[in-house]
Amino acid sequence: MQKILRIAVVVMTCLVIGYFSGMVTRESITTWYPTLIKPVFNPPNWIFAPVWTVLYIMIGVAGGMVWNRLEFDAEKVKKAFLFFIIQLALNALWSYLFFGLHNPLLALIEIVLLWLIIFETYTQFKKIDKVAGMLFIPYLAWVSFAMILNGSIWWLNR
User: Fold this and answer.
1) Each residue of 38-89: pLDDT tens digit?
2) Closest C-alpha among 37, 16, 27, 35 to residue 92
């Protein structure tokens, strides 16, 4: 039961952070964001919320699975979880930089750092639990796409 509770706590934490990130974007989605020139591969706005919800659930499950391995190798788990927390904070920061401050360039610089920390989290997680590591691959892919999209938006609107 404790293992399920740990997973649930991490999933809920990720979803709450995602919710607050969404609050930062809500106003800009209808005011500032429509005024930007976007690349042809820009997805429709409605796709972002369901994709991020699924990703937050997946990385939350991964985080809970790694937390459940604490008694096997506390040192590795603590290190991996530190990267997990950092990437989650950077994830939330990106929304503030892009949508809150309306600064695609600063958000682009930050998303590169975010991608690197996500990759390191994936690397640390797969050493502890291969499935937890695999759960990070869609997140890494989506943030790769988001980085290209962010860079394109910055380029087109500079």
Assistant:
1) 999 999 999 999 999 999 999 999 999 999 998 889 999 999 999 999 999 9
2) 16
Rounded Cα distance between 52 and 66, Å, is 21
Q: What is the pLDDT of residues 100-132, one digit of tens each?
A: 999 999 999 999 999 999 999 999 999 999 999
pLDDT per position as a tens digit, 38-48: 999 999 999 99
Residue that is written with structure tokens 């927390």 in the block:
85
Asked if residue 58 lies in contact with residue 52, where contact means CB atoms within 8 angstroms, the answer is no
Mind giving me the DSSP string for the chain? -HHHHHHHHHHHHHHHHHHHHHHHHHHHHHTTGGGS---TTPPPGGGHHHHHHHHHHHHHHHHHHHHTTTTT-HHHHHHHHHHHHHHHHHHHHHHIIIIIS--HHHHHHHHHHHHHHHHHHHHHHHHH-HHHHHTTHHHHHHHHHHHHHHHHHHHHH-
pTM for this predicted structure: 0.94
**CA–CA distance, 96 with 65 (Å, rounded to integer):** 29
